[in-house]
Amino acid sequence: MKVAVTGKGGSGKTLVAGALVRHLAARGHRVVAVDADPNPNLGIALGVPAGQVEVMASILTALIASGHTHDQPMPDPDELVARYGITVADGVALVATGKIERPTDACLCCGSHTTTRRFFGELPAVGRIVVADLEAGLNDLIWARPAADDVVLVVAEPSAKSVEIATRAVGVARELGVRRVLAVANRDRDGEHAARLAQATAIPTLGVPDDPAVTTADHRGVAPFDAAPASPAMVAVGVVADTLLGVPV
Amino acid sequence: VLDRGAERRQWAAMVRARQAGAVDQLVAAARDADGAVTRCLHWLGVLRHVERLVRHAGGPRPSEEVARHRAGLEAAADEAWSHVAAAGMAVIAQARSRLGLRVAVIGKGGTGKSFVSATLARLLARRGRPVLAVDFDTNPGLAFSLGVPPTLGVLPDDALMQHPGAAYGWGLGDGLAPAAIVDRHAVAAPDGVRLVTVGKIGGADKDAARKTIAAVRELAGAFGEPDWDVVGDLEAGPTTPFERYHAFADRALVVVSPTWVSAMTARRLLPMVDDVEALVVGNQFRDEPDHAGLEPLGRIPWDADVAEAERRGRSPLDHCPDSPAVAAVARLADALTRQEVMR
């Protein structure tokens, strides 16, 4: 199974993707976590120390540094995971597709988007689960081009902007032919946001409650899954994991 | 892989020629301006505009075309400088207070870029300044914060042209001057703000986003009206500053919230905008300390009324005009205009 996590910036994509990965791994699944954000920070939500996240190579920057040009075929995706990925908690493999830093004269013309498309598209998903945390907004969803059998997880927080972008994300996913699209109403209070998001998107919607434990973890730059595994938000992402796995909840 | 180099160079030359034409018009307007202060304002505007174009025109591999363009720009700057130097200090000071701000707002998603951009734009307009708000984000956002329907302000096809060398195959049409395009196509937002936006992904017009991205960037870059404030809201994250979407601006506002990742993002973004003056703005702060090394120019408090405005999709200036967060943006507007006079 491959899961692409999308939504407005600041809606909680990385929080949901990180906790989802940890839940899936804790249930015994082999998981590859793909940080497709050119501003990579999924590692933090997976429990990697911030300093290590900051120095982690991305596929794009590592390939450029090694003299790779876009005329050459990209190495096999599994080889890229082995070469540039790191193993984090619960045996999860974490790999970043493209970190964009200071302007350089290096060839970034293909950008992180192309790397994401090729990597996410070609990485085999047999016997493992691939979870990709995409860049904020809908452009990267188009670039990642999830396949019909993939899952698109659309995360929204309670703002009208976030709900509007989620609604558009569902439309984009449908146009791409994706059959399984699921919405996550993050920072929900009393089910109100989940009800509104479900109505706006007309797709199955799960709520993740507004949770002070997550806020505290966000301020400290640590994974809420480690800091507060039993918090309501982390338990709710467990329900998202079970739903994806088809476990009755 | 197709080699589109020649077409790209051809399009870049057309863009530079249009920029040069716009500078010629600014110079002509300055020569015709009435009154010492207004004349000085126009020449200051020419100087500032040329400075921006030169700063961003070269890139790593400047061509002969760039050098030719640069010579014309420097001639305009020389003429402008001679006029400004001849004006008295009192006239220059008055002219500077009317000189438009050019601000690009960047930062991690969800930190409040659109809230800051829209509120700043409307508050500047309330002071009687002409304001152009530019939405560079292909996702809806700024329009909600301004209080206009999110489908308005997209450049129509007759302001665009197809060219194989332009990004996504489309750029700004060359029939009209930048100010005329704004006059004709920018939507009127509350308080007199004018809004131009890129098309949005996932809407009825499937091509709207890719057709308008380059055009909006070209428009913002060529638009040099001296007294207009230009506030640009950039798409979240590092891609837009990496691609120099902020080239229209003199300053970048990097918005951070109390989260650790927003500070990490700001630290990654700051080196990308070192070609302009970069300033940090803190948003949604309760009693958290500032992030280390990110001393903010302005601190906007967490505000339940703004959160409610966001939930409803209303402009905070309409929903909660007296809220502490709006008051903090007003202080930010003060600080930015004061700094502009001091520059």
Question: Which characteristics define this entry?
Answer:
heterodimer; A: alpha/beta; B: 343 residues; eight-stranded mixed beta sheet; 13 helices; 14% strand
Would you kindly provide a written description of the structure presented here, covering whatever features stand out?
The complex is a heterodimer of chains A (about 250) and B (about 350). With about 250 residues, chain A is an alpha/beta fold. Helix content of chain A is about 45%, strand content about 15%. Chain A has an 8-stranded mixed β-sheet, with helices on both faces. In chain A, β3 and β4 form a beta hairpin. Chain A is globular and about 55 Å long. The relative contact order of chain A is 0.19. Chain B has helices at about 5-30, 35-55, 65-85, 90-100, 115-125, 140-145, 180-185, 210-220, 240, 260-270, 305-310, 315-320, 325-340, and strands spanning about 100-105, 130-135, 160, 170, 185-190, 195, 230-235, 250-255, 275-285, 295-300. Chain B has an 8-stranded mixed β-sheet, sandwiched between helices. In chain B, strands 3-4 form a two-stranded antiparallel sheet. In chain B, α5 packs across α13. The N and C termini of chain B lie far apart (about 45 Å). The model of chain B has no long low-confidence stretch (mean pLDDT about 90).
Q: What is the element layout, followed by pairings?
A:
The complex is a heterodimer of chains A (249) and B (343).
Chain A: E1 2-7, H1 13-26, E2 31-35, H2 42-46, H3 50-55, H4 59-65, H5 77-84, E3 86-87, E4 93-96, H6 111-122, E5 129-133, H7 139-144, E6 151-156, H8 160-175, E7 180-188, H9 192-201, E8 205-209, H10 212-220, H11 224-227, H12 232-245
Helix pairs in contact in A: 1-12, 8-9
Chain B: H1 5-32, H2 36-57, H3 64-86, H4 89-98, E1 102-107, H5 113-126, E2 131-135, H6 142-146, E3 160-162, E4 170-172, H7 178-185, E5 187-188, E6 194-197, H8 208-222, E7 229-233, H9 239-242, E8 251-256, H10 260-269, E9 277-285, E10 296-301, H11 304-312, H12 316-319, H13 324-342
Parallel strand pairs in B: 1-7, 1-8, 2-6, 2-7, 8-9, 9-10
Antiparallel strand pairs in B: 3-4, 5-6
